[in-house]
Amino acid sequence: MSAHSESGPALTMRDVAARLGVSPMTVSRALRGQRGIGEATRQRVLAEVAALGYRPNKRARELRSGGPNELIGLVVTNLANPFYSQLAVGLEQICVGYGARVMLGSTGEDPATEREVVADLVDRGVDGLVVAPAGHDHSHLGGTRLRDLPVVLAASPPMGIDVDCVLVDDFGGTREACRRLVARGHRRIGFLGLPPSLWTGSERFRGYAVALEEAGIALDERYISRHRGDSALAEEAAREMLALPDPPTALLTANNRNTVGALRALRDRTQDQEPVALAGFDDIELADMLHLPLTVVSYDPVELGRAAATLLFERQASTAPQPPRRVTIATTLVDHPAPR
Amino acid sequence: MSAHSESGPALTMRDVAARLGVSPMTVSRALRGQRGIGEATRQRVLAEVAALGYRPNKRARELRSGGPNELIGLVVTNLANPFYSQLAVGLEQICVGYGARVMLGSTGEDPATEREVVADLVDRGVDGLVVAPAGHDHSHLGGTRLRDLPVVLAASPPMGIDVDCVLVDDFGGTREACRRLVARGHRRIGFLGLPPSLWTGSERFRGYAVALEEAGIALDERYISRHRGDSALAEEAAREMLALPDPPTALLTANNRNTVGALRALRDRTQDQEPVALAGFDDIELADMLHLPLTVVSYDPVELGRAAATLLFERQASTAPQPPRRVTIATTLVDHPAPR
DNA sequence: CTGTTAGCGCTTTCAA
DNA sequence: TTGAAAGCGCTAACAG
């Protein structure tokens, strides 16, 4: 029977001190490896602590010392979205290196919920926040109400507020994908996108528009659909485009939901119909196992999470005010050929 | 300019009380909606609190009151795995209903890391833990060391410890999938599985074995491969099986990694080769868009997370000791036809 | 109904 | 090198 097996109310530093006939301060000093304590005493204390299985109360420690709580808040719309869960993984990777943990908050894309969640995380003592914002106005994240905590926005640049942010190269990635389609001879390229109110929506559309302009191809409203990222709507829009008298020979999709919709729309086309090329933002698991070839704009959300954490800890370390920084993650174009 | 715009050191209850000329207790009572305070006073206090943007310090409150911290720890191997991120979503859904938040810990499948993470979460004052364990011995989660906190194991039953757990019907789901293959006339069914040391590995294999036994089919070692869930290894194993003199006419895979491996192995088969049927545990996004038909054992990890949270809060509510409970989530068999 | 006292578990500050 | 006192922000317990 080891000494830990005793249960009951958690041990306090006083208990440990009492058993050793020393003051709590001695235990405290030994535990924190603070100098100004005899080596022999320290050993005796540490041995007793180990034997008792005593663990100091972090909350009390932080309350008194006023130091950082080594806690980062992560606010996302929906963790089931692989983009956000991978972001969380990257964030946590860096956090553990700083001895920090991640506290989670989901907003379900509702700005009001986001506000509450952020406030709650702040009340719980996070040292900083990574927020993938639900709305397009971010002034509620203003430093003042947040006890001047550092905030990093993810996947969207700050609007109405000056904070750091980490972004994906939405514009560059989409332009490159569109260029590839153009290089393969496509002139009628349909765009299935996100609403312009979303940063990603407007940036990815801009990539499409610029690539077409570079190729001397005029934008054609009939080939452009911009709605929320719902695969069913995207599928419908794709079907409509493909039913035009002069249908697009290629589709460019602004995110994986749109890509899925497009894939479904292309699913039932017969061999004798003109094949339609497809390129899209966001990689897709098993893309190489689909029944048709697919080109995707790929990037690493884990890296995005790491970048966000790094900005946060750097900001935390420096007391001097620094201008807001912006980190943009590169994308790569990946061709997934179809199985024969 | 609203009153919040003042920054500086966070306000305390004392500050609010001082401005109103009342005692901190009055503010405390008003804030918690405690009765035994005049309605007029309460309004006055709440108005001032709102005007000042004062937010009580939750950590101090919890330290003093000794009550629950409304915090649940979630320990998983890798949040990038959709199974775990969906589990997290379900857990959080229930938590918000109880005013609780989720603190995250990743183990990377390392039992030693798991131990540390769990200890850290406990030190940080979680009221309970949901753990998807990395190893197969769980005695380090024993109540004693955890300050008698409630623990719920996810996806694995407790070994060497008595706690609640939530499981997927690994056995039943696999048996059903295998039965379906048998019903379609298959007699030589290859199994691509997980090592028997994993609970899911042994249960899913058992489902396979029982279904075969029911059909009067003897197990054949040549058709059985049990390794870690790595799709490359699974692909290799599948290729070997298919190269046998009398190859299996169907493959049954024990998880999505194995399914992906099998799909890749089947990818390059030509039209004139015998088609090989495929069934597997875990649903796959876009399964209906693959180049071959696939039957999957589907279930809802979000539901698993909800169940875990529910067990946790129920256990927390009842002081009387209750025997460990086990919740098993049902699976359904889903047929994904291939596109033509 | 409101205020005072004490103390949650720990650490800062100061004294020995 | 060690200890005693005081208090982080808040609330239980007991006054008034």
UniProtKB/TrEMBL annotation, chains A, B:
<dbReference type="InterPro" id="IPR001761">
    <property type="entry name" value="Peripla_BP/Lac1_sug-bd_dom"/>
</dbReference>
<dbReference type="GO" id="GO:0003700">
    <property type="term" value="F:DNA-binding transcription factor activity"/>
</dbReference>
<dbReference type="Pfam" id="PF00356">
    <property type="entry name" value="LacI"/>
</dbReference>
<dbReference type="InterPro" id="IPR010982">
    <property type="entry name" value="Lambda_DNA-bd_dom_sf"/>
</dbReference>
<protein>
    <submittedName>
        <fullName>LacI family transcriptional regulator</fullName>
    </submittedName>
</protein>
<keyword id="KW-0804">Transcription</keyword>
<dbReference type="GO" id="GO:0000976">
    <property type="term" value="F:transcription cis-regulatory region binding"/>
</dbReference>
<dbReference type="InterPro" id="IPR000843">
    <property type="entry name" value="HTH_LacI"/>
</dbReference>
<dbReference type="Pfam" id="PF00532">
    <property type="entry name" value="Peripla_BP_1"/>
</dbReference>
<keyword id="KW-0805">Transcription regulation</keyword>
<dbReference type="InterPro" id="IPR028082">
    <property type="entry name" value="Peripla_BP_I"/>
</dbReference>
<keyword id="KW-0238">DNA-binding</keyword>
<feature type="domain" description="HTH lacI-type">
    <location>
        <begin position="11"/>
        <end position="65"/>
    </location>
</feature>
